[in-house]
Design a protein that fits this description.
- With about 250 residues, the chain is an alpha+beta fold.
- Helices cover about 15% and strands about 15% of the residues.
- The chain has four helices and eight strands.
- The protein has an eight-stranded antiparallel beta sheet.
- Strand 3 and strand 4 form a beta hairpin.
- The chain is globular and about 45 Å long.
Length: about 250
């Protein structure tokens, strides 16, 4: 389906590949596909044959855009996603790609290789890097707070991730009533008080939790997300003025 981007209604869902372009409200994907239609990679399996040890300092990635610069840390507890992302950054894979799908109070999505030099009318969101999907790495301590860095995915039973497309959460502050509804609807998550407080104070998109792999977070430049989500968008929530990215490792 062409309208792709993660969202879930109060019934909760798996998304980032399906969102009503006429409204900012999430819609339930009837066949439970993921948010933005990310990769068309091969069947889920071991994405990386060699996984480095889960120790040492967390890797930092600088994400430069024409709306400002963000710094994200990559979690050591999600080594498949971490190592895949590091590999692509080192190769310069993300340089000159676009944040091709932007939804205010939700997220900014990018990483489609087809977005490099794309025409204004090009349909984006289906591209992938060479190789397989990345197996899901759901961790209860990593959730969709504002600034969360997570992997987009398509509709696959294993909830395996795109091997290149990602999104950064903006979301919005949640009310007690909204959080109560999420807790009732999303039985995959056992939220603690600290997580609930973060969702109320800085916001996020809790309906995505434990359905898409969160593998990092923005630790500097959260305001850049807000700037990008204020741009004018055209069809399929693509910014009318290209939001271009460039990345490099900082450590």
């Amino acid at each position: 389906m062409n309208k792709k981007i993660i969202w879930v209604s109060l019934a909760f869902c798996t998304m980032l590949f399906s969102l009503n372009a006429q409204t900012k409200k999430p819609v339930i994907n009837k066949n439970k596909s993921a948010p933005v239609k990310a990769a068309t990679a091969k069947t889920a399996g071991t994405a990386l044959k060699k996984i480095t040890a889960v120790n040492g300092p967390e890797k930092l990635v600088e994400i430069v855009t024409n709306y400002g610069t963000m710094v994200a840390k990559l979690y050591n507890s999600t080594p498949l996603h971490r190592d895949n992302f590091i590999k692509l950054v080192k190769e310069g894979f993300y340089d000159s790609l676009l944040f091709h799908r932007v939804i205010n109070q939700f997220m900014i999505q990018g990483g489609d290789p087809n977005s490099k030099g794309a025409t204004e009318t090009a349909m984006l969101g289906n591209g992938s890097a060479p190789g397989e999907r990345i197996p899901a790495e759901f961790k209860p301590m990593f959730f969709h707070k504002k600034g969360a860095l997570a992997a987009a995915r398509d509709n696959n039973a294993e909830k395996a991730s795109s091997n290149c497309q990602f999104y950064i959460v903006q979301g919005k502050p949640q009310t007690d009533a909204e959080l109560d509804q999420i807790k009732k609807s999303n039985t995959l998550v056992n939220y603690n008080d600290a997580q609930m407080e973060i969702y109320k104070r800085i916001g996020g998109s809790p309906f995505l939790d434990q359905n898409y792999t969160v593998f990092g977070e923005v630790i500097s430049g959260l305001e850049v997300i807000d700037r990008i989500t204020k741009v004018n968008i055209s069809a399929n929530n693509r910014p009318q003025e290209n939001v271009v990215m460039k990345m490099r490792l900082l450590n």
